[in-house]
Amino acid sequence: MTTQTYPKIRKAVIPAAGLGTRFLPATKAIPKEMIPIVDVPMIQHIVEEIVRSGITDIVLITARHKHSIEDHFDFNYELEDTLEKKEKDALATISKSLGKMCNLIAVRQKMPMGLGHAVLCAAPVIGNEPFAVVLGDDLIDSTVPCTRQLIDIFEKEKTSVVGVMEVPQADVCKYGIVGGKMLNPRLMEVERLVEKPSPAVAPSRWAIPGRYVLTPAIFDCLREVKPGAGGEIQLTDGLQLLAQRERLLAYQYDGVRYDTGDRLGFIDATLAFSLRRPELREGVIELMKKHMGALK
User: How far is residue 259's CA from residue 267's CA, in Å, rounded to a whole number?
Assistant: First the structure.
């Protein structure tokens, strides 16, 4: 395996074409990614992480029912003009800032053929450059953005890297799990990737929660892997092939992860982010006390 020189990472991919069935009936008419954590849509938290990591070109893999995501990161002249005329300048500034936040490039995934296929849909826009992949279901709260942490590893090691977290042995069956050679307590050279293994055969307890920085070689790997269950192209299978062709690293990032694709995980994130808001903290604590009292 040879080390190749790559340009700086300028683009990130957000796969967001799913139906969001776990959040029905809310997602019958609203994209799951637009459901807010307090008053900020999930997708905005993801975009803010990417922008804080130094990337402003974002490839949104979308579907025909997801127009509101694109609209959210556009200017709304009527709304902003109305707010300014009513002297609600702070709200107008919030709206305008979303239009300035990033350069959003929407690409349709016309058929739901899996996460690997969604990433492959970005190939014409990414070209022959390294790029980040950030899943919208995983909110990672950290001082240094998780994506930035992975970019730093990529720039040092010049090879693909996935973010990982350590999970209980009983939970490895819920995730893609990596195994390989430890280079230091937080960094592994990946030799195996197993999608949702049983605890008895899992190669480690390091799980991938949806953060990747990848070389463009992943695209050829995804073109070559065969569809799995349901006819879907799995990103894990593409990464396994990538690990056979060039170095693939796994880095245990700093941060707290919330699975906002799960209802309890969504509630967990909502409480955590509410309690950080000075104007909401005391009220949220009182509400929690009230509901805990009602359970007695």
Answer: 10
Q: Calculate ∠ Cα 206-161-230, nearest 5°.
A: 70
The amino acid present at 46, given as its one-letter code, is I
How does pLDDT run across 128-187, given as a tens digit for each residue?
A: 999 999 998 899 999 999 999 999 999 999 999 999 999 999 999 988 899 999 999 999
pTM reported for the whole predicted model = 0.90
Contacting residues for 50 by C-beta, under 8 A, at least 6 apart: 12, 14, 58, 102, 132, 134, 145, 147
Strands 138-141 and 187-195: unpaired
DSSP assignments along 61-97, one per residue: EE-TT-HHHHHHTS--HHHHHHHHHTT-HHHHHHHHH
Q: Are strands 248-252 and 36-37 parallel, antiparallel or unpaired?
A: unpaired
Which has the closest alpha carbon to 12: 154, 110, 191, 143? 154
Angle at which helices 42-52 and 146-157 cross, to 10°: 40
Beta bridge partners of 164: 252
Rounded-to-integer distance, Cα 250 and Cα 159, Å: 11
Q: Domain locations in the chain?
A: 11-261
Instruction: Write down the CATH superfamily of domain 11-261.
Output: Spore Coat Polysaccharide Biosynthesis Protein SpsA; Chain A (3.90.550.10)
